[in-house]
Amino acid sequence: MYTIAVDIGGTFTDVVVIDHGDGCLHAGKVLTTPDDLQRGVMLGIAEAAREANQSVAALLTNALRVVHATTQSSNAVFAFSGARTAVLATRGFGDTLLIMRAAGRVAGLSVFERHHYRNTQKPRLLADERDIFEVTERVDALGRIVTPLDEEGVRAIARTIHARGYEAVAVGLLFSHKNALHERRIAAILKEELPGVYRSLSCEVAPVIGEYERSATALFNAYVGPVIEQYLTRLERTLNEAGLKQRLLIVQSNGGVVTATQAVPVFTIESGPAAGVVGAARIAEALGYPNVIATDVGGTTFKVAIVRDGKWGYSKETVLNQYHLRLPMVDLASIGAGGGSIAWVDGNRLRIGPQSASASPGPACYGLGGTAPTVTDADVVLGYISPERFLGGRMRLDPARAAQAIQNNIADPLFAGNVLAAAAGIRQVIDSQMADLIRKSTLERGHDPRDFAMMAYGGAGPVHAASYASQVGVSRVIVPYFATVHSAYGAALSDVRFSLAYSDPMVLPVRFDRLETIYVTMEQAGHARLAEADVPAGERRFDRWVEARYRRQVHNVRVPVGARLDDAGVTAMAAAFEAEYERLFGRGAALREAGIELVNFGVDAIGVVPRLPDERGATTGVSTPYAMRATYCPVRRDMVSTPVFDGPQLPSQTKIVGPAIIEHPGTTIVVLADQHAEIDAFRHTHILLTSA
Description:
Layout (H helix, E strand, L loop, with lengths): L1 E7 L3 E8 L5 E7 L5 H15 L4 H6 L1 E7 L2 H7 L6 E6 L5 H4 L11 H5 L16 E4 L2 E2 L5 E3 L3 H14 L3 E5 L8 H13 L4 E4 H4 L5 H31 L6 E4 L5 E3 L11 H17 L4 E6 L4 E7 L2 E2 L1 E2 L2 E3 L2 E3 L3 E2 L2 E3 L5 E6 L2 E8 L18 H7 L17 H16 L4 H24 L10 E5 L3 H12 L3 E4 L6 H8 L2 E12 L4 H21 L7 E11 L6 E5 L5 H19 L10 E12 L19 E7 L4 E9 L8 E3 L2 E5 L2 E5 L3 E5 L5 E5 L3
Parallel strand pairs: 1-4, 4-11, 5-6, 5-9, 9-10, 13-23, 23-24, 30-32
Antiparallel strand pairs: 1-2, 2-3, 7-8, 11-12, 13-14, 14-15, 14-20, 16-19, 17-18, 21-22, 24-35, 25-28, 26-27, 26-28, 29-30, 31-34, 32-33, 34-35
Helix pairs in contact: 3-9, 6-7, 10-15, 11-12, 11-13, 12-13, 13-14
């Protein structure tokens, strides 16, 4: 029996197959097919099936779980290829989405872009004033109906929506998180009047305080909803026809999975990176490292997440296309820096990204038509990546094209024609950008990097980890054996997870039974959803949390809550908030006299997936280099002869002194001078930074 997991990235589509009998992993990695993502999925499954010595039909027929992380929702947003969407808002509040937050002009932009404020502007609208319709109704802040819903007015709007050819409708009414009666009645009317139009209610996708964020989340969900529904329906049908007997599971941004029919389209945004964090936490737990900095370097982006005491954090809000959304999302910091990031000249300065060559046309060395120099091109010129063994030899790179791209665009204008110096400059800049993001994700959030191990994965992560890790002070980097398909691996291990939330601001002291009622109500809803996902009662778990703040402040701090509340539990909740507040903002910053306000309450309803056995590495193999290759030495600023090892052949307990190159199908591990590497019992590579 097998678990199959698929992760679609900007450059590659990754597939992992786990054999439930012995824990053996098989991987497939193919170029993403942007014109038809499903084609890349099936090609990747075929590649993994060959590695497992199985036919695709046999693999799918014997699959107990098929899990999919998709970029379809992100693609639709960034390419503005989603559905034509109408918005229904409370009369007098139709401009909420147009006004945005004050920070909407610069939200999500880099520091460099913010410094050029005159060049910034509000984002392109998914729905403009012509797409927004105001509905006569009003609910007050306590959830009381002040003005009844004008149902005939809604029906008239529905007729206009039909006449104009809208494909989706987002409904975002004032205070719907306190009383969803009007939104749900509108949904019923739209179902009668517009049976083929996708509907998205703010009370369902973001039932929390914050009128703008709630409406924006409903809008984005409606915008990508038809695209995701059609894609998942088509993919599940194709998999069923190929032999799959189980329901397709979809990774959500909270690091969990749900069935395809339960998936909330907007919650699939960043699902692949979220799965990568899950995988990082699982590996770190198995190795005995409770604190880990997860770093993911793909073809397009560099992402950082913090796992502390075995748990990852959740972002309070998400910025997408400069809109602020409320999604249950793993807390990930991201910049446009990856293997496909394009190097360019800004005046007399070298810059990298955020533009990316992606899968099409890809880096110049791919030979697929790309002419812009990328980070991957620089790594090829510096000797870190072997042109002959890329993707296990299935794809040959062209170092001459890489050198020419760097020569024309970087070396000639900035480095007096010195291609090697230009390539080294590209690597230095990109590694510094990555180190900066790690510092922001740790030091600025009250974490000392020296207390953490670092995990590096993604196709380009192991190539650069030794460099950016040494800049932030960590002493150990762990490269998972299947680092190149790590997010797919994390998807395979992800639990079923539903994130429920409720807003009802109240200032302590509060009776514990009032709080307990809130949590029990959410847990009952969680039980229903888990049952729908076929999770047995004995495998269900509920994690409670609360977002609190000091009275009259605006930023919330999230802390866990005990399984059952009493007076002592409420006291412990307040103490946990104050401890976390002081960790974030400094000892002595807490001020209980201001009053602690509980704002948002939540429950993660979890269907625990039984842990699969970990595949152990062989104790025998080839621990000597198979070749010597010239690679760039940052200390000497020149090429030096470097031993190259075949990663899959290295037995456990192997120790390698840097500088060295360890090659795996799909990625390369670079070990620098003053560092050494060790292979553990599970075939993961540990880089020890003795200079850190």
